[in-house]
Amino acid sequence: MATKTSNNPKDNTDGKAGWAENVMAAMFAKERSWQINDTLNAWSFALPEVQLVKVVPRAAVIVEDTAASIIVGSKTERFALGLTDYLDEFASVHGAKTWKNYPNVESWQSTVLNNLKNPNVQIVFNLTDVNVWAGVTRAARGAGGPTDWELLQIKNNLQWWDKIKWFIDGIEVPNPFQ
Prior knowledge:
This protein is α/β, with parallel strands linked by helices. 40% of the residues lie in helices and 11% in strands. Strands 1-2-3-4 form a 4-stranded mixed β-sheet. Helix 3 runs parallel beside helix 5 and helix 4 (132-140) crosses helix 5.
């Protein structure tokens, strides 16, 4: 007769099932860390300025270069959008650039789109005094102002939503399109 070695009241075995589960979990964790290391090594060859340390299960990736911050999910610059009346102060508070910081202000739409598409840019959008749905409706009709157009571009491109932080009167708010 087998002796029960598990303290788990639901374990009606001799304890070997618990041992097997632990072994499988450890093997999975080790395999996963090798897969992560292989991926990170491939990235470090593509970006030689990135310095990485070996990943172990349940450990963080340590990055010693800000250029590599893209890999771990943070953005390296910020770009502000919103009504012109509040834009400069809002951008200053958030350490962000605006379309006004670019040499060719006449092509502001290209500047906005390029920043929205750039994975290294965090977008901060000031919704103070903005009626989002009225603006999107105006822009969809080909009317409205720049902020209306910006909102329509964002609404139609779900892939950008995660990179945008929304604010009203300086307070972060949820995405108005979700």
